[in-house]
Amino acid sequence: MQLTGELLIGQHAIKGTRDPVQAINPATGEKLEPVYNGGSSNEVEQACALAWQAFDQYRETSLEDRAVFLETVAEEIEAIGDALVERAVAETGLAEGRIQGERGRTCGQLRLFARVVRDGGWLDVRVDPAMPDRQPMPRGDLRQRHIGLGPVVVFGASNFPLAFSVAGGDTASALAAGCPVIVKAHGAHPGTSELVGRAIQKAVSRCGLPEGVFSLLYGSGRDVGTALVSDKRIKAAGFTGSRNGGMALWKVAQSRDEPIPFYAEMSSINPVFPLPEALRARGRDMGKAFVGSLNMGAGQFCTNPGLVIAIKGEALETFKQAAIDALADANAQTMLTPGISDAYREGVERLSGHNGVTELGRGPVGEGMNACQAGLYTASAQTFLADTALQDEVFGATSLIVECVDSDELAAVAEHLEGQLTATLQMDDADLESARALVPILERKAGRILVNGWPTGVEVCDAMVHGGPFPATSDGRTTSVGTAAIKRFLRPVCYQSLPDALLPEALREANPYQLNRLVDGKRED
Ligand code: NAP
Question: Which residues are known catalytic residues?
């Protein structure tokens, strides 16, 4: 497919008029054609108007029709073939295998949400039948279901050009909830965005849906992104990126006349706690495996293990030495953009320039452009407790080991942590009591607690929580990965004493969708 550099507004393709965005191959520095001119307020207006027009029709599509639409998007993405993989590799510097895996995850995610839509559990239908003879007051017939919030803006993430971008998790869950979506493309991979955007456009057309169900805009966040979040027809937004960017847009969302939910996934350093007995038993293996997780994808994962917290001693020294040894083989991989590479270098300089921080080791420098040189540092618990800046995310393959004198100090460090996406315990049976003391603290700090794994690698499934207290996300009550993500874009509506013919299908007495309803306090089979 020939890329055109056009904005996709409903079924139209329009050349933008504002400042251009052009992808750069981060491995070579080559500028990639075409140029993508940013959208102006005109295009923002058109996309929002179409999305608003589409909303009432789209949110009442049958469960089957909406599920088929999500499956058609997946089919159309697969139909792009190798061109999608080639463009994404060129724009991101990520390996071909990684992009292929991400395409599988993206399409799998869309199909998973199709299953969720068909199941209808998300409607959460509750029926409290009328009690006309109740004394002293009769009760009317009360029925509840969930509906989509309205048009949603999605900010594509730089580090997942497919799975968290144009047709990624935020888009899939919003479309599943019955919300039209306008994507603000990430400037790092505009060509990949266009290819996927055109696939969604085709799916909208094939399924006979109103065109405003999907639009894709390019342009700067301060300009197009802010205008979209400010528009009164937009009712929620999903974001993955930096804490500064997320908070700037969150403020825009909250200062509107009608504030809206802004689901930002921002910054997390994902503490790992190697507990004493596990360290003693397998400190060497653990140190090596830790560096494997740290350097995966040049550390550009929101779940990258950026912090290790452990009790000082011989066993920790073994872990540290194994990690230092493993760093020698931690290839310097290309980072996603020159900007992210610069930010990484600055973050490492801040860490290494800190008075209380000691460098343990660095990985190979790497020969290519924007190569990520892995790094490992250490600080005492007292240093860490004294300076919250040591909790700032260094986005890339660098981690800090915080050394504690005893379990009380380790618990104090855990208490001191900001909100996280994950917290990991490395433990053996003999660590059970130490772990039991930590879990209640970690539950307050993180969205996901893992034992004897590494935080990188997020399963897309029903039980997943990819969220957590601030600053991991702007709203710790939700998840952005997994089927529960649909809840972010829904709200309940109660219908009191409506005649059956006026009720939405899902609430009718005959239960045409065969939903598992809560009727008069009892779950139907
Ligand atoms: P970013 O700079 O936050 O950009 C993400 C999106 O937000 C882009 O579309 C950007 O628009 C927009 N944006 C940024 N600042 C804005 C503002 N003040 N007002 C309105 N819109 C704004 O994130 P990034 O480009 O992906 O990477 C930069 C840094 O983000 C990384 O170095 C890393 O620290 C962090 N990051 C974290 C995660 C994570 O999962 N924790 C993931 C990716 C990145 P423009 O196109 O105009 O820039």
Answer: 265, 302
